[in-house]
UniProtKB/TrEMBL annotation:
<dbReference type="InterPro" id="IPR008972">
    <property type="entry name" value="Cupredoxin"/>
</dbReference>
<dbReference type="Pfam" id="PF07731">
    <property type="entry name" value="Cu-oxidase_2"/>
</dbReference>
<feature type="domain" description="Plastocyanin-like">
    <location>
        <begin position="38"/>
        <end position="142"/>
    </location>
</feature>
<dbReference type="InterPro" id="IPR011707">
    <property type="entry name" value="Cu-oxidase-like_N"/>
</dbReference>
<dbReference type="InterPro" id="IPR011706">
    <property type="entry name" value="Cu-oxidase_C"/>
</dbReference>
<protein>
    <submittedName>
        <fullName>Multicopper oxidase domain-containing protein</fullName>
    </submittedName>
</protein>
<dbReference type="Pfam" id="PF07732">
    <property type="entry name" value="Cu-oxidase_3"/>
</dbReference>
<dbReference type="InterPro" id="IPR045087">
    <property type="entry name" value="Cu-oxidase_fam"/>
</dbReference>
<feature type="domain" description="Plastocyanin-like">
    <location>
        <begin position="183"/>
        <end position="282"/>
    </location>
</feature>
Amino acid sequence: MVESPDLPLLPYRVIGGVKCFELFAGVVQQELLPGVFMQGYGYNGSIPGPTIVVEPGDFVQIRVINNLPEPTSVHWHGLDVPNTMDGVPPFEPSPLIQPGFGLDYRFRIVNPPGTHMYHSHYESIRQEMMGLGGLFIIRNRQEKQVTRDFAYMLQEFHLDGLPKGELQPGSYAVDPMSDAFNFFTMNGRCFPNTSPLHVRLGDCVRIRLANLGMQGHPMHLHGVQMLETAYDGNEVPPWNRLRKNTVFVAPGETRDIQFGAWNPGRWPFHCHIPHHTSNNFTLPAGGMFTTIQVGD
């Protein structure tokens, strides 16, 4: 079972053998920290949007309703889909979704199990940086080795109106044109508002990482070493896997890491760029940071 901490899995109905999902693009107030909200764009009321989980061979229909004040599209990042379904107007025949209208994306899952993304591919400099994206995971129902399976979307934002080094409750607009990022999120939250992961001693743990932003993130795990098991949704053969404690996730990439939970304790898992583990350059740990509790 795939879990995306602090994010729901997108529900679906099976109609005529087709898995039918619904995504609503709209203006979202996302709570990064208690009392600190950002005004951005998201799906189904959250930034990032809910996590889509499918299986190889599924035929899917994803109905996207545009409640934004501007046109949009959805691109299925890393998925091998028909040209009309790829969601990159005007460079492809995939249609643009006008405000107040919807579009059904229909395709069969031909990729093997792996970690992917979905995001706007229309006026990307604005819409991606306003938050329009989510995780798209193809799971392996037959897999037995992994006992806990977590997924994270990594993003960064510039919130206007907060003086550097201050955290005041309120709602702040995202400036998608600024690269002076002051908030760094895991599944739409900043530490200490990120939910800790709880695993049992002896669990085999996978963490899926996807980077929708503009900056790379060297994700560092304390307490145990980890194996890189997949790049961009493609499995790394066991004889080529590297054992590391820091894995770099570049913009547009996904990485899967795996480790055995043998060392009890509460262990940090975070980006190792110091500015990325701060909330608006305040001193306590924040930003792209969570913890993993192994055992009691």
